[in-house]
Structure formats: structure tokens, C-alpha cells
Design brief:
Rossmann fold; alpha/beta; GMP Synthetase, Chain A, domain 3; ATP binding; five-stranded parallel β-sheet; binds adenosine-5'-triphosphate; Chromosomal replication initiator protein DnaA
Length: 452
């Protein structure tokens, strides 16, 4: 076997070859050309135990490089791949590497993250759940084999649901794994502005080079703004055709399906629908809780479960608002040092939580009866059937929690005495802590009732 063959990379890290190419590029960009005369004679072998193993022609070479360049190399390596703080050497038996190896790669390596890509938007920070499973899986498939899977990928859905996040995650992933890939990310408005400017300044050749020749991955956000802009659409159409014909990856996002975008040409509509169209739906209750917990973890905020459930109950439509609520809570917590409880959350988030609907005991009885498929009258009777008794206790608990009525008042509405109400409330409080299905039912009921 060729002594220089690369072994498989450590999962989650780019290959030794990619890491080495990026390291050399970073050193080159710093103008340290004297070092490159030596460094370029080494060959990336593999990543082993947090070290990048480099092939050297002999021991003399190894010792000299080690004395002069180890610390520079390790500094650059750690900057590029924080888990890789070390280099190791392996003497390659046989003719010197420079004699039998292809010359160092001449492909341009983009050691800078492509313009406008936010490093925060990655697959690692994206919570995958029922509401976004298909677009998330498709985006990952594109990121793993750009241009081969689902081309074009068209992600659509309402505002603040994570379309931009996914789109940027595709770009970040591709760049991190292979910095030679030329990734162009922008919104359709920015595409339009660049186009208009290029026409005005007679720079269309540059514009076309950027979008057709020097682009391996085209990521366009909010494509719906292209509707009604005839000239830009025409230019975009030819850009699309060129890239598509070359198997270059194209990912688009929009807040509507192609057929609904006003003013969009039919030929573009049909091309958008050629690959895969995947929608992101509003997050379910469970997804909202999961997103809050993951984001709290990322922020270093200790978010107790009841508080996550409290926010998820009140902020229902939009992940952006969910995030906003958490950021505010976190900021107020670190300023005031008050413990993060439901009460604290309700004070801090007062202005962003939807206005409270006033609920009364009758509304609670109706909602609980509907939920457990019993009649309101049955809730007030004396029957002790187990399911009925549970529904009754839940209704009493919610009456106490949501209306703040006194125990005797609640008791009179259920034709019971007040000690029965007290024990029902205590029982349901206990079950809420210990029984996840009761917890879920109560959260759902509270959401329906719009209460605290
Ligand atoms: N599933 C998710 N997991 C983690 N964060 C998410 C998720 N969905 C959305 N977000 C976060 O919510 C915020 C809004 O998401 P994003 O900007 O991607 O929405 P969008 O769908 O592009 O909205 P718009 O159509 O208004 O541009 C971002 O900070 C994003 O990180």
C-alpha cells in the first residue's frame, strides 16, 4: 500500500488533507512564505489522537521543522480546529515526498467563512422535530453531497420558523468540510441589488462570473422577492440553468410555494418544483419545549422544566419569538439574580406574552368535559367512576390555578365540600410532578384555556 495513503478522518473533523490545505493557506495569507518552503514538503497523513500526522522525508527534516515551526503550526491548527492542538510526524520510507507526490494543490481555499454566513446557524444548533423533519433531513443530504441530492431544494414556511437557519447550516457544513467549495449565499433582494448595480456599472461579466462560473453552491434566501422583477428573474433563470446543468447545488427558501409567489415566471416555478419542496410547519408544543431547552443550554441558562413549559404554552407560533422570550429571561436573570421560576418568567415576559384571556369556572368545566369526553353535569355529580373522578379533580385544580377562586367557591360550583377540593388540588399537583401524561394533559388544557 502507498505509504502516503490517507486513513479515514476522525468523524466530525475534515480530512487531514483538507485541514492541512487550510493551514498552509492561512500561513500563506499571513505572508510567512519562508516557512512554506519547508512546510509544503510535508504531506498530511491522518488525524490521530487529536494530532495531525504529517509525513516527512527523513529525521533530519523532521527535527529541523519541529524546532523551527512546531509552535507556529500548532497555533494555526488550533485556530482552525480547536480539538486539534498538535502535530506529529511520520518518516515516509522511500523516495522523498516531493519526488513522487502531486504538487501542492492549486485550488483556491477559502480560509474565510463565505460572506454573510453566520457561524451560529449550524445543524448542531438546529432542533429537529416533527414540524421540520423533512426539510432538515433534505438540507443535511444536500450538505453531504451537494448537487447530487435534491436539486434544487426548496424550503418554505412561515416567518421565524428556521428557514434561514437551515439554509445557512447547509453553507456552513459544506464550507467546514471542504473549504475549496465556492459558496454564494444571499437573499433574493441582495441578488437583485447586485444585478441592478452591475447593469448600471457595466460589470455584467463580473456578475456572471460570480454567479455562474465561480459558484459551486448557490443559497438564496426569501426567493419570493424575485416575483415581479422581470429583468432580474430572467438573469436568475439563466444563472439557475447554468448551475443546474453543471450539477451545482441550489437551495432556495421562501415563505410560500412557488405556485403562490406573485409575479414569478412559470418556467422558474416549474424549475423550483423539480427537486424537492419541503415545508417547515409551526412547532408543536413538544418542539417548542425542546427548542427552549436546547437554546437555554447553549446560553448557559438553567431553565427548569416548568418554566420551559410555561413559555411554550404562551409563545406558540414562532421560534424567533420563543428565542426572544428566552434571551429576555436570561438577561433579566443575570441582572437581577432572581431564580428562574414561572412567576419570574410571567413578570419578565409580561409585555411579550399574549394578553391573558379571563377564564371562569364554567369555561374550565366545559373545556375539561370536552377533553375527557364526559358531560359537564357528570363533573358535578357524585359518581366515583375512576376516569370521571380524575376529570373532576383536574377541573377543580384548574379552577383554583387559573381563576384564583377560593376553595369554598369552587366547591359550591362542583356540589362538593371544600375539603374535597383541597385534596383534589393537592393530588393533581402531585401527579403533575410525577406523571408525564398528566403533565402533558394539563399543559394542553391550559393552552386551550389561555391561562397561566
Ligand atoms: N428548529 C430550530 N432549532 C433551533 N433554532 C431555531 C429553529 N427554528 C428556528 N430557530 C431560530 O429561530 C430564529 C428565526 O429563524 P430563521 O431566521 O431561520 O427564520 P425564517 O424562517 O428564515 O424567518 P423569516 O421568513 O422571517 O426570514 C433563528 O434565531 C433560528 O436560529
Amino acid at each position: 500500500m502507498n505509504a502516503l495513503a490517507h486513513s479515514a478522518p476522525t468523524p466530525s473533523l475534515p480530512s487531514a488533507g483538507v485541514i492541512w490545505t487550510r493551514t498552509l493557506e492561512a500561513i500563506r495569507q499571513e505572508g510567512l512564505h519562508y516557512a512554506l518552503t519547508w512546510l509544503e514538503r510535508m504531506r498530511p497523513m491522518e488525524v490521530r489522537e487529536n494530532a495531525l500526522v504529517l509525513g516527512v522525508p527523513d529525521r533530519f527534516f523532521r527535527d529541523w521543522v519541529d524546532d523551527h515551526y512546531r509552535s507556529m503550526l500548532e497555533t494555526h491548527l488550533a485556530r482552525l480546529e480547536p480539538t486539534l492542538g498538535r502535530v506529529a510526524y511520520e518518516v515516509i520510507v522511500g523516495p522523498p515526498p516531493s519526488a513522487d507526490l502531486p504538487p501542492p494543490p492549486t485550488v483556491k481555499v477559502n480560509s474565510m467563512r463565505p460572506a454573510r454566513l453566520n457561524p451560529r446557524f449550524t445543524f448542531d444548533t438546529y432542533v429537529v422535530a416533527d414540524s421540520n423533519q423533512l426539510p432538515a433531513a433534505a438540507a443535511q443530504a444536500v450538505a453531504h453531497r451537494p448537487g447530487h441530492n435534491y436539486n434544487p431544494l426548496y424550503i418554505y414556511g412561515g416567518t421565524g420558523l428556521g428557514k434561514t437557519h437551515l439554509l445557512q447550516a447547509v453553507g456552513n457544513h459544506i464550507w467546514e468540510k471542504d473549504p475549496t467549495q465556492r459558496i454564494v449565499y444571499l437573499s433574493s433582494e441582495q441578488f437583485t441589488n447586485e444585478y441592478v448595480e452591475s447593469v448600471r456599472e457595466h460589470r455584467m461579466t463580473d456578475f456572471r462570473r460570480k454567479f455562474r462560473e465561480e459558484c459551486d453552491v448557490l443559497l438564496i434566501d426569501d426567493i419570493q422577492f424575485l416575483g415581479k422583477r422581470e429583468e432580474t428573474q430572467k438573469e436568475f433563470f439563466y444563472t439557475f440553468e447554468t448551475l443546474f446543468g453543471l450539477n451545482k447545488a441550489i437551495v432556495l427558501t421562501s415563505d410560500m410555494v412557488p405556485a403562490e409567489v406573485p409575479g414569478m415566471e412559470d418556467r422558474l416555478r416549474s424549475r423550483f418544483a423539480m427537486g424537492l419542496m419541503a415545508d417547515i410547519r409551526e412547532p408543536t408544543y413538544e418542539t417548542r419545549v425542546a427548542i427552549l431547552q436546547k437554546k437555554a443550554e447553549q446560553e448557559g441558562l438553567d431553565l427548569p422544566d416548568p418554566v420551559a413549559h410555561f413559555i411554550a404554552r404562551h409563545v406558540q407560533k414562532n421560534v424567533r419569538e420563543l428565542e426572544g422570550a428566552l434571551v429576555k429571561l436570561s438577561a433579566m436573570h443575570s441582572l437581577t439574580k432572581q431564580p428562574v421560576t414561572e412567576e419570574f418568567a410571567s413578570q419578565v415576559l409580561r409585555d411579550i406574552l399574549p394578553a391573558q384571556r379571563t377564564v371562569d369556572i364554567e369555561a374550565i368545566q366545559r373545556e375539561v368535559a370536552r377533553f375527557y369526553k364526559v358531560t359537564v353535569d357528570a363533573l358535578k355529580e357524585d359518581r366515583r367512576h375512576k376516569a370521571l373522578a380524575h376529570a373532576r379533580q383536574v377541573a377543580m385544580y384548574l379552577s383554583r390555578k387559573l381563576t384564583k377562586s377560593s376553595f369554598p367557591e369552587i366547591a359550591s360550583r362542583f356540589n362538593k365540600d371544600h375539603s374535597t377540593v383541597i385534596s383534589a388540588v393537592r393530588k393533581v399537583e402531585g401527579l403533575r410532578e410525577t406523571d408525564t401524561s398528566v403533565h402533558r394533559d394539563l399543559s394542553e388544557l391550559e393552552t386551550k384555556l389561555g391561562g397561566m
